[in-house]
Design a protein that fits this description.
It comes from Halomonas citrativorans. Pfam families: Gly-zipper_Omp, OmpA. InterPro entries: Bact_OuterMem_StrucFunc, Gly-zipper, OMP_bac, OmpA-like, OmpA-like_sf. With about 220 residues, this protein is an alpha+beta fold. It has seven helices and seven strands. The strands form two sheets. Strands 3-4-7-5-6 form a five-stranded mixed β-sheet. Helix 2 packs antiparallel against helix 3, helix 3 runs antiparallel to helix 5 and helix 5 packs across helix 6. It is globular, with a radius of gyration of 21 Å.
Length: about 220
């Protein structure tokens, strides 16, 4: 019997409720990270529960239990990251660091013009102040992995740009580590001029490409 046929209306309701929320301002339905986590968790839990049962009734019951448990786990991750995002947005107001939510991941975009001097990997005072706030939040949310990536524009020698991007990512990682974030949670890498977010044919585009991105990823069911 196909697993999808084992889901009763209760399990289906968990999936639907988990994936969509209502915008109280615009009245439109939108997907939230918590809802997505709930829906995915419910689906995975239902599948696992169905596969573990021997008879059709047992499989159906286990699918329901698995859906409920999986939904709770998925929602837990979403709520954990929601709280973390909210604190980061509050603490980084006015810092010129852009915060982007991508599913359960949180991406902090630090423009080079704010973070470093020209052709340098030394952090500016503004960057250190902002990273102090980031470190304070990360120390509260210990079930978050921190991936730090450096990027440059395409001007100049490619190998030099690669090394500069690596040094800049490392500078950010070192500063977070020095301010209490465990180094075991940190991963740094440089991409040089690869993965541009804008055209390198204009000054504005090149400025956008010179950046460090800090991607925060949940390790598991975090409790902040």
């Amino acid at each position: 019997m196909r697993i999808s046929r084992l889901l009763t209306p209760l399990a289906a309701a968990i999936l639907v409720a988990g994936c969509a929320t209502s915008d109280p301002y615009g009245g439109q339905t939108q997907r939230s990270s918590t809802g997505m986590g709930t829906g995915i968790g419910a689906a995975v839990g239902a599948a696992a529960g169905a596969l573990s049962g021997s008879g059709s009734t047992s499989r159906r019951d286990r699918a329901l239990i698995g859906a409920a448990v999986g939904a709770a786990a998925g929602a837990g991750i979403g709520v954990y990251m929601d709280r973390q995002e909210q604190e980061l947005r509050q603490n980084l107001q006015g810092s010129r660091i852009e915060i982007d939510r991508r599913g359960d991941d949180i991406v902090l975009n630090m423009p080079s013009s704010v973070t470093f001097g020209f052709d340098s990997s030394d952090l500016t005072g503004d960057a250190r102040s902002a990273l102090n706030e980031v470190a304070n939040v990360l120390k509260q949310y210990t079930d978050t992995r921190v991936n730090i990536a450096g990027f440059t524009d395409s001007t100049g020698d490619a190998s030099y740009n690669q090394r500069l991007s690596e040094r800049r990512a490392q500078s950010v990682g070192n500063y977070l580590s020095q301010n209490g974030v465990s180094s075991s949670r940190l991963n740094t890498m440089g991409y040089g001029a690869n993965q541009p977010v804008a055209s390198n044919d204009t000054d504005q585009g090149r400025a956008q490409n010179r950046r460090v991105e800090i991607t925060l990823t949940p390790i598991g069911n975090g409790q902040g």
